[in-house]
Amino acid sequence: MTSKLEPIAFTLSIVLSICASISAFNMGKQIHGYILRSGKFSETSVCNALITMYSKCGVFDWSLRVFNAMTKMDVVSWNSVVSAYAQHWQGKEVVRCFKAMQDMSPIKPDQATFIALLSACSHAWLVDEASRIFNTMLTDYSIVPSVDQLSCITDLLGRSGYIDQAESVIESAQFEAHTHVWWALFSACVAQGNLKLGRTIAGILLEEEGNNPSMYVVLSNIYATVGRWQEFANVRELMKKTGVTKQPGYSWIGGLN
Hints:
Layout: H1 9-21, H2 25-38, H3 44-56, H4 60-69, H5 75-87, H6 91-104, H7 111-123, H8 127-139, H9 147-159, H10 163-171, H11 179-192, H12 195-209, H13 213-225, H14 229-242
């Protein structure tokens, strides 16, 4: 930064984003020092980039320091700190942060906010909190759930044993569910041994992506989970007849000469 030309906020944000992507903490810290010396800390976009940079470099407390020192915030600011909490596995703090956003800020959450919130709740197994947040998104903010949001809430409910509720969420969606959403519920059926629903979802996936060997493998695993070995063998035989083969696994461990 020896040039007489001074970087603008947009330039600094891009450089900080690069630092975040490669976890270049020392470089990011130096840029932060330059920002303070040059009086550009008042730029909201720069502060947002700093929050993300510190979070991805593993210095979460500095993300919070930057956020708390900001004089002007936008929805990206809140999304950045929510994502920072989520990245550091602080699910309950994510929920508290969202409540603070609702109570203290006139800024409305957007799609990205709810993706970060639901993802954090999913990782922390916060079923009740995730359900409330999902309903808030629908009723208070009239946001149509995205594929990622549906997949996230479906996966959490399914893994937690709430298969019926997960199915109801999909059926109540305002558009036809993406196969990713059905896969989330399909995987939950294996974990919970729900053969009836698993068969139904298998039929849906068979129509959408019949040549996907994973569908046959997961269905056969459901049969194995509940001890239906004849059906397990039938699915494997069907795979052979239709020419669908399971992809072999690979290992990086090789023999030493």
